């Protein structure tokens, strides 16, 4: 099947299964491993396996579900499992899961024997719309998100929307946040179209998924190693990661996408005060985000957030650097801000003030 250039190694729906079988037939892999978490093994891999005859020979590696699996501990366990199974450079790793599985599994593949071939098979909306695409892999270190990682290109990304049938509702919302981010960053109409999807039906039109990926791929193609334009994809993530790390220590952890959506709300407010984003444009977007991504009842104290923000890997020295928006659909990276501006915007947005 011919893919548009921006989808060079991304295969959708039925074409994904066909590609995998044909590609595998054309290679001579010594062994095949499939990495899943316990949920994606049960809900996704078991149902998928009979559709692709090649998968019959796969050995399954299982990790516990959840962000805590993006750890050096799991990385070491997986290196050991591959070693013990006699995996060599001609072994294939197929990562079947959400962003945790594709980030961790991607790093395993990038590092084991200095790199083995791998395929990303995202099963959550977040991983289909963002995490599995673009070549970033990684794990967390201490409280720092994605502190250790590598850029690594999978042989392909296989997007099978039917996996989404078993995705829990909160995960749909989390995934949609990254799609909304792509719209705010590069295409305001996309932001509004994604925000208008009726999520009660748990359906994401394939054309919106494809468009969100095209927006991401266009930025990644310009700057695969994040030296310049790719930084735009971090919109909402400076504060988002700090909030995600803070709430991970509480009894109400925030999903990645929810934390990013809160970061987007504050980025909108700062874009008005620091980059001249027209307040009426910002206000409408803010209202849409507030409706679906409320602030947790337990506020994160600034004293706890500030060190997390200062440790963000996008900063240089001790400045806080953020991506802001001169207009909806246009992002500008590397805006240096005093911490006090961020604190003020955060408090105003959390209190529900208008822009
Ligand atoms: N590499 C990148 O460019 C990039 C970009 C964005 C986010 N991320 C990372 O992605 C991670 C978040 O990804 P996520 O939200 O997919 O988290 P996740 O992998 O933890 O998945 C969320 C939950 O949904 C379950 N699940 C996934 N697919 C399912 C399905 N089809 N049916 C039933 N349950 C299913 C998982 O088991 C898990 O419990 C974060 O660690 C984030 O840092 C990476």
CATH architecture of the largest domain: 3-Layer(aba) Sandwich
Structural category: alpha/beta
Total helices: the number is 13
Q: Which value, in Å, is the CA radius of gyration?
A: 20 Å
Q: Which CATH top level class of the largest domain fits? A: Alpha Beta
Small molecules bound: nicotinamide-adenine-dinucleotide
User: How would you characterize the largest beta sheet?
Assistant: 6 strands, parallel
**How many independent structural domains?**
2
Please tally the β strands and state the result: 10
Q: What is the succession of H and E elements?
A: EHEHEHEHEHEEEHHHHHHHEEH
- For the biggest β-sheet, the strand order reads 1-8-5-4-2-3
Main attributes of the structure:
alpha/beta, Rossmann fold, Dehydroquinate synthase-like, alpha domain, 2 domains, six-stranded parallel beta sheet, 10 strands, binds nicotinamide-adenine-dinucleotide
What features would you describe in this structure?
The protein is of the alpha/beta class. It has two domains: 5-166, Rossmann fold, CATH 3.40.50.1970; 169-200 and 225-350, Up-down Bundle (Dehydroquinate synthase-like, alpha domain), CATH 1.20.1090. The protein is built from 13 helices and ten strands. The strands form three sheets. The protein has a six-stranded parallel beta sheet, with helices on both faces. Strands 6-7 form a two-stranded antiparallel sheet. The longest helix has 20 residues, at 256-275. The chain is globular and about 60 Å long. The chain starts with 9 loop residues before the first strand and ends in a 5-residue tail after the last helix. Residues 37, 39-40, 43-44, 65-67, 70, 97-101, 103, 123-124, 126-127, 130-131, 134, 136, 145-146, 163-164, 166-167, 171, 174, 178, 256 line the site of nicotinamide-adenine-dinucleotide.
